Structures are given as structure tokens and as C-alpha cells.
Amino acid sequence: MIKRALVILAPGFEEIEAVVPIDLLRRAKIEVVVAGILPGVITGSRKIRIIPDYDLGDVLEEHFDCIILPGGAEGAENLKKDIRIKELLERQILKGGWVAAICAAPGCLINFGLFLSNKFTCHPSIKAEIPLSRLEENSSVVVDGNLITGRAAGSAIEFSFEIIRQLVGEEAVKEVNRSFLSNLPMLGSIRKE
């Protein structure tokens, strides 16, 4: 069965943190659906304009194995304002699905009161939002339960490979990297047991 991932774009999203997961997950033969919180073109933090596949409202009832939240300071603030995202994430957690958030987007999870005991990494600019006992600030990517968090745009490749690893396995990571040729060690990330 083909795995499915949803990438949610909000105005001001960090382009690298959206496009790298979309690209690498598709290389891993994961079906990636890109949805905007507004209809039409969504403009990122560097003024790159992306046309999502769907409006978020059109995919709220669909099944996804992973929901991915790109960061970007403005993008994360816009995600926090959309109650549909909170409800979508609550349903994802209840059914045991994966959630992945990078950069400033882990702050959305805290804001929504989700993943109350999980370890996180995030961009240093929002680390004050994460309880210190749960913060892994020196880690590029952290996996805790069904939550994957990434530190920043520079972690986008490692973050994406971790999503692939969790959804379709280590062999898929190696297969994608055969043509992608990342120099990152493909050893996995910090995990809370």
C-alpha cells in the first residue's frame, strides 16, 4: 500500500522546509499532497510562490500517514491561526499517524497543546516556547513516538530522510540517496524510547 503525506503551506512558509520534503518523499514513492491554508498561490518567506495541489479544506477528511508542517516564522504563525490544522493533527494523533514539524512549526504543536510529553527540536528563535525538559536543542532531527521534529532549513534533508525512514524504511532512504548523493550520515536520529 502506498504511503501518503500531506504538506501544509501557509503564507510565509520556509521554502526549503517544504520543497525538500516534497521532492525527497516523492523520490521515495510516497504520495505527497500539498495543501494551502488559502486557495491559490502561497508565497513563502523568500517570496517564492508555490501553487498547492489543493486547498486544505478539500483534503481534511482524507487519510495521510504523515502530516508535515514546514516552518518559517510567519508561516508558523499563520499555521497557529488555522483551527482546522489543530483538528487535523488531533485526528492524526488519535489514529496513531505521524506528524513532522520543522524550524518554527514545532511551536504550533505546543500552541495547540499537542504532544505534551514528547521531546522536540526547533529553531533557536522559538526555543523559549518549548519546555526546557522536552527540548533537544543540539539535535538536527528528533523522533519521539510518532513525532518527528527538525531544527531548521539546514536540517531539511535529514528531516526528510527521517520521514522516509519512518514511513517506508531504511532501504528506501538508501535508494533515494543513491541518486541524491547526500553526504549526511544516514544513521537515524535521536529517539526517545
- How many domain modules? 1
General shape: globular
DSSP strand (E) fraction? 15-25%
Number of strands: 10
The CATH architecture name reads 3-Layer(aba) Sandwich
Radius of gyration: 15 Å
Provide the CATH top-level class.
Answer: Alpha Beta
Number of helices: 6
Walk across the major sheet and give the strand order. Answer: 5-2-1-6-7-9-8-10
Organism: Methylacidiphilum fumariolicum (strain SolV)
Domain DJ-1/PfpI: 3-166
Protein name: Putative intracellular protease/amidase
Keywords: Hydrolase, Protease
Question: Care to give the gist of this entry?
Answer:
This protein is α/β, with parallel strands linked by helices and 193 residues long. Helices cover 33% and strands 20% of the residues.
Overview of this structure, please?
This protein has 193 residues and is an alpha/beta fold. It has a single domain, classed as Rossmann fold (3-Layer(aba) Sandwich), CATH 3.40.50. 33% of the residues lie in helices and 20% in strands. The protein is built from 6 helices and 10 strands. The strands form 2 sheets. It has an 8-stranded mixed beta sheet with strand order 5-2-1-6-7-9-8-10. The model has no long low-confidence stretch (mean pLDDT 94).
Key phrases:
193 residues; alpha/beta; Rossmann fold; eight-stranded mixed sheet; two-stranded antiparallel ribbon; 20% strand; globular
